[in-house]
Prior knowledge:
It is a single chain. By secondary structure, the protein is of the alpha+beta class. It has five helices and 16 strands. It has helices at residues 11-23, 63-67, 73-90, 103-115, 199-222; strands at 41-52, 94-100, 126-130, 138-143, 147-153, 170-176, 180-187, 228-233, 242-243, 251-255, 260-264, 278-280, 283-285, 288-293, 297-303, 332-337. The longest helix is centred in the middle third of the chain and has 24 residues, at 199-222.
Amino acid sequence: MNFYKKKSVSPLYAGLALAAAALLSAPILFSCSAMKTERHSLKIVNWNAQTFFDGNNDGVEYSSFITSKKWSQDAYKERLQKLCKAIGQLDGDLVVLEEIENIGIVYDISNALAGNNWNPQKVYRYACFAKKENSSIGCAVLSRLPLQGLKVHSLDIQAEQSQAPSMRPLIEVDLFAPKRIKLFVNHWKSKGGGKAGGQDSAIWRRWQESLLAQKIIEANEEDGGVPIICAGDFNQDISEFRIVDGGAANVSLSCPFSGQKALVYSPWLDFAGQIGSYNFRDKWERIDHFFASGNLRLEDFAPQTGEWSYEDGRPKSFRLHSLNGWSDHLPIACRATF
């Protein structure tokens, strides 16, 4: 039984892929010294940028932005500058962002970062973006390394008694570092708006887990065990996943309709720090994730603090009424070696 419908790349997505390729098509030099040896490495950053809209009113923004008297082009430019400064400080070779409104913002980020950087090895020449049509926000990838083969996978669920809510698609793209790595970008259904404890929303996250698990299984079968990195805001603490013992993998992602499981590694389970990536009512949650599969290791993992966080590590959320803050999530980062 097919539990999802894989949509072909629509004209919208195709246009984005071509536009990104046109903008970021120059040859790239890999900056890591590990290129001189048999092993390679790259730094990966993931960050939910929290409702990052531009200054235009396109009708898809959240109502608070549409009705705000403070949100404007100038406010957007100021927020963009703050985000780009933080990305520059994080210095990831690959940067995954959630809650970005459109491809235009990805261009603005890329151009701003390039304009403030004279080191050609640090420029983000490659990018991709996708979101569900007419939705408010999507996910973006910025990369100093070549990206190819963008695919967007959407769920079409008709097996539940209640109607499925709008859910963000799963992005699949190949990264060449120089070895090919498959990247899956996720932004799962939030717990907000559900019944007590988020039980309703958990149903839809299980479907999104099933889709991710199936794509990992397919990649392992079709591509001979290509190294895989999954990143994003999963809106689910690591403790809510199925933890397994033994071997390099410590998390099991389930694909119930086929009975198969995808075993992956989560660096959260080896992280000794006290903070998470999200703080709700003074309680830390570890809902932003990296997962790895195949001949690839994730090292030096940690939530990243800086001017976007308070002294105790809590993120400085963006406040529309004051235009202060960055995001209600902390960025997470790790180094992938392969």
